[in-house]
Amino acid sequence: MPRTPTTPAQISGHRFLVRRVEHALVRADARMLHDPLRTRGRAVAVGAALLVLVIAGTVILGLLRPRDGAADADLVLVRDTGALHVRIDDRVHPVANLASARLVLGQPAEPVRVGAAALEKVAAGHPIGIPAAPDIAVSDPPPAPASAGICEEASAALHEPVMVRSTVARMGPLPEGGDSALVTDGASTWLVHDGRRAPIDVRDPALSRALGFSTAPIRPVGAHLLEAIPETGAVRAPSVPRRGEQSGFPAPFDVVGRIVDVGGRRVLVLSDGAVEVPPVVADVLAAEGGTAAATEVELAHVPVAPGVDHGSLPGEVPSWAPADGWLCVDADDRRTAVTHGRAPAAVVPYPGADGVGPATDGFSSPASATVAVDTGGGVHLVAAGGTRHLVENRRTLSAMGYPATVTVPWRVLAAFRAGPELTRDSALSAP
């Protein structure tokens, strides 16, 4: 049987009943003498429509007639050309870069984009700025690498000895571990071990035999890499007070300075007892005090003496780095790591690189942005290309948008190519 179609009167009646129910729920009155809910709904709809029209008109007006920001902004960027202008008093000066503009203003201002026509309404000044200033982040600079370092590549050419062929500055994470090497700058020889360098006489027979110098290659190094490694005292045999005198203990512990082998352990006899020493230290001291052997029972009758300071002398025979290949020195505020074999990645050549000459030839860093560093004696910005720029003080550094720094020793940063100093006076000068 076909369904009876719904009539308009039924639809109208249903709507009326729905409104009456809403009216009863909202106003607690089902008589429907008045219908304020319909009036309120119409007002809301009209208001929403007007709001949409106002927003659309604002957007269209902003596109057709951009705001004239040059009238009151301290720093403006011309949308069409990308040129920066900075306000000084009542004039707007073309400025070389964002770093120079922030130096002038003394705050990390962000540029306001304007059209070229906006600048026609203000007085123009002469160009200013530091053309070679680094590119800096407009806001929130990325995290800086944790350490800085110097790397050298040494190799031998045909009919030539091994020499330093390239020197590269770098920034990046601090390598784990470290290597040992014998290095020379042509005037002195140094033992590099545990992140330190110590002068050493490779002709000393006791040191030579104990450390295995007969098979240790001596690597040439440049001044930058050598100065990046902290220096300690010269490598020499530990001092033993009253060496050669009688100790007063039973033999073979009766002579001060003697090395006694006790079950594979090396024991040094002192005036107040005996103390175990590392193998290399024992071999060096045995060259002067002689050796003997004893049992654990005999050692038990000798008091334990305080330890002996062996200074820069390693306790074990190091594994020596070869004379060629890459050698790198990296440092942060806590540790220096000397590593061999890992070449710097993605090296950016410095202008005027001289290869075998004394200058640094390039820069390598995983970061592609300018970073702020503190050497303990000053603050610097290191550009993405590896140029370091001295900054006047921390207040100036913060004004450029870099409130935080990483600590890098000056002995390492000194090898980076130097750029112009970043000061307000320099930024106010004509380029």
TrEMBL record:
Q: Which InterPro entries match?
A: T7SS_EccB, T7SS_EccB_R1
- Pfam family membership, one: T7SS_ESX1_EccB
Q: Which UniProt keywords apply?
A: Membrane, Transmembrane, Transmembrane helix
Q: One GO cellular component from the entry?
A: extracellular region
Q: Where are the transmembrane segments?
A: 43-64
Tagged with keyword Transmembrane helix: yes
Recorded coiled-coil stretches: none
Q: Which NCBIfam families match?
A: T7SS_EccB (TIGR03919)
Note the PANTHER family from the entry: ESX-2 SECRETION SYSTEM ATPASE ECCB2
What name has this protein been given in UniProt?
Type VII secretion protein EccB
Q: Which organism is it from?
A: Corynebacterium xerosis
